């Protein structure tokens, strides 16, 4: 039997340059689901673009891509366009930017039907309503005349999914469709994809860096590294007996969790009372971002602050560090008022989410790491000694001092950011999603570093995250935030195994362990 | 290329301060309206003044008015924009409303008003064009700075206990200086064009000092007799502006390779 | 338009009114410090002191500044602009007759700028990086560097002196028939419009090339559009706000340019009127024309902002 999609000897490269995909081959039967997994730069996304016929002009593809036995790789653009949407649909990673901001969502869902001239105007309109309802955006709550900016990231990905299905394609290529979403939303979108593919008999190629995501949906997986396939087989087999080191690394993540011993002491380092902060919104008047929050962090403790995106956790962090003034309430650090923090300013430092954003590109590393000491006017030699020491703590070579941030990778930059937080010898370090921008292998290394530093310097951590899996590895106590309020608080294990609030339950459910059968629950 | 043209013009202008083939204001009626020759490389005007010398002196006036007006515009606009971004709130509103107000006055109209009030002079031209430059620099600075403030490295600086002024000096301005330099070249080019326009209306340097715009105005009377006089000063303006624009594009490409791909 | 957009529009219109008031104060103050007594200019140097005083009273120059500003701006709103000192006709009539030249000139120049600039920009964007793009952009680069009044002089040189196709300037008046009147505005509007067309070509090319790299253009292609179709139906609509913004800004340059170009072509328009009334110290005329031009710039920018609210639904939502 002819497979629905057959890719053989596919290579993609810059004209006369390096190959991004090298002699790749796979086949997809009708109704089958194939996962492609790999780290960044493995060529998995380029593969999707090549199959969809959406490669940027500077890339050329050679080899063969057959759809129902017909060669499509070298078709001219107009004929290729006739297949896109109609036979092969594609959804991408960035739902925030993938919708045209000046067009209503209904028009964008209808577009593939308009382009391929399917059905009458009325049939198209009806189908748009059906599709939007099918992806969980019923007309009653989501009128079709909404614009993309009026929707959240998860909702936009639903719209994109509806648009991808509008012309009843045979195969759906999904390029990291959930990576940009928070874990709860990610879980919902995956369920939806699963459901829709099942009901419509859709064939699926799912690309992700996260084996957990692939395992949730696909029966077969292909592992890529450096543009080549390094391993492939049934998901169950790959998970239990990975043959290639790359696969093993992707599987091994999350399994290395070592429970951390905590020594909570009973002197509160930071006390917040009645913290409230609201933002002015264009339409609905004011939105409360943080609502009457009481909070204590003991010296030496590590507290996780979790919640879905929009729950107010980042705003709370900014209030606690004094970066933003509260509308009501107070924060006392070591008994000091935030307005007069100058004396204790060094006691709180922060590590930010995006390491590509947190280092001034104009400054050299020596100056960046030393910045928290600038106001102390230390003698030059002492200043330098502190900087060198901090850099050593995060295991970066001393010659890093004379370079600019652009010379470093994401993981290295995060280490530099940690060194900057350490140099002032703080007592409380606020970690704002410090791992979410890093790839899985680097995440492990940074986690290990953070827990070693805590032991060495007697640090107190407040870790902000939407991922309970990460929180579990670093913290003993968890605070769950929803809609700006604390809805649950307690030891990590308790919240993981018997969450009481719906917000906590959603977060627990969202932790996708790379196991074959999702009904087994998270594997800790 | 852009840099070469700009440097050449600058050299000509500087040279005119110490040497020109003839004194640019020397009238020699016997030698009026001569074509190019070895004695007068680019010929003479109806008063027998040496065109090449006048063009060189014109370059000096043009460039100094342009430079002065851009310095004025950047000198007031950059701090205003940086402050608006750093402090926000009412100050931001005030600066932006002031901007809108200045924007409503086209440079030539401002110059006409000022020339009426102060009399035509180099300073009138500098102030008129400079006033027009203030909101441009304020806007560019503010919008670039506003994008920087929420970034994590600026937040980290705040956690280091630094104030808004110090952060502006240490982090914000160094990160937008590139954009400002590009803007300076663009505004210099526009200022050269504006100065030529004012000169044409007789609102720039007062006579007898030559300016490119005024030379064009004078040449219009003799257009049929001596088109050369109407072409040369315009060519000078166009080449200078072209050089500055190319310099700006080149700088922009070097600073932002992503934009270079767009070009 | 959504309620929110209407609200934003109303706020923007309010701001425009405030800007106009502030501008009127500015115009008034700057022109009040004009050296030279308009009364003395009118009566000549031989005037007797008592005639001068009487003249000043008649012209309203003896009242306090605030009162004079209020009278002026009140008259401005109701259309009573006072009498021109030099022409001895109502300023309103003077402005109307001059606007008959300047308004068609401005509109024709804008047509030249938009009609040449935007298509050229789109053409270059569609052939991005190929020879046609490079040639178009080189032409735009040169067009950008040429002062409009010099283009005017060159056009006169070419069409009047060398080819003898057109008169050197002047305006026959609309009585001479629309075709003769329009013909006399062709060269001036080319001179004024061409440099702006160059600006617009560059801006629209960059905007379209930039938006055509955004994710949603790829989404459109994934739905079945070809590359060129995706540019027209997704990249262009999203580039439009940037292009419209620039067209609005250009209006200010066009107004400034009319002063110059009307001088080159001896056109009896508003720009020339401004210029002439300085020499004559014709204060009522000068203030009113400048205020009118400034008001036009402010109102055009307001119109552009309102149009942007329609073109980009996100603007209305932004606080």
The residue ranges of chain B in which pLDDT falls below 50 over 5 or more consecutive positions are none
Beta-strand content of chain B: under 5%
Order of helices and strands of chain B: HHHHHHHHHH
**What characteristic shape of chain B results from the CA principal axes?**
elongated
Biggest sheet of chain A, strands in spatial order? 6-7-8-3-9-10
Strand content of chain A: 15-25%
| Total strand segments of chain A | 19
Tally of helical segments of chain A: 17
Largest interface (CB < 8 Å): B-C, 43 and 48 residues
Rg of chain A over CA atoms, rounded to whole Å, is 25 Å
Using only CA atoms, what is the Rg of chain B? 22 Å
Main beta-sheet strand count, sense and barrel state of chain A:
6 strands, mixed
Low-confidence stretches of chain A: 254-264, 514-524
Q: How would you state the average pLDDT of chain A, rounded?
A: 84
Write down the overall mean pLDDT of chain B.
83
Q: Helix content range of the residues of chain B, please?
A: over 70%
Q: Count the helices of chain B. How many? A: 10
Helix content of chain A: 25-40%
Number of strands of chain B: 0
The SS-based structural class of chain B is mainly alpha
Give the N-terminus to C-terminus distance of chain B in angstroms. Answer: 16 Å
Write out key terms for the chains shown:
heterotrimer, A: 524 residues, alpha/beta, six-stranded mixed sheet, 17 helices, 33% helix, globular, disordered C terminus, C: 319 residues, mainly alpha, MetI-like fold
Strand-helix topology:
The complex is a heterotrimer of chains A (524), B (263) and C (319).
Chain A lengths: L4 E10 L4 E10 L4 E5 L6 H9 L6 E9 L2 E2 L5 H7 L4 E4 L13 H11 L5 H14 L18 H13 L5 E5 L7 H18 L2 E6 L2 H7 L2 E6 L2 E7 H6 L4 H8 L15 E13 L5 E13 L3 E5 L6 H8 L7 E6 L14 E4 L13 H6 L9 H14 L16 H14 L4 E5 L7 H18 L2 E6 L2 H7 L2 E6 L2 E7 H6 L4 H9 L14
Parallel strand pairs in A: 3-8, 3-9, 6-7, 7-8, 13-17, 13-18, 15-16, 16-17
Antiparallel strand pairs in A: 1-2, 1-4, 4-5, 9-10, 11-12, 11-14, 18-19
Helix pairs in contact in A: 3-4, 3-5, 4-5, 5-6, 6-17, 12-13, 13-14
Chain B lengths: L1 H17 L32 H37 L1 H15 L3 H12 L3 H27 L3 H8 L4 H37 L11 H10 L5 H29 L1 H6 L1
Chain C lengths: L2 H30 L5 H6 L5 H10 L6 H14 L12 H36 L4 H14 L3 H15 L15 H34 L3 H8 L4 H38 L5 H10 L3 H29 L1 H5 L2
Helix pairs in contact in C: 1-12, 5-6, 5-8, 5-10, 6-8, 7-8, 7-10, 8-10, 9-10, 10-11, 10-12, 11-12
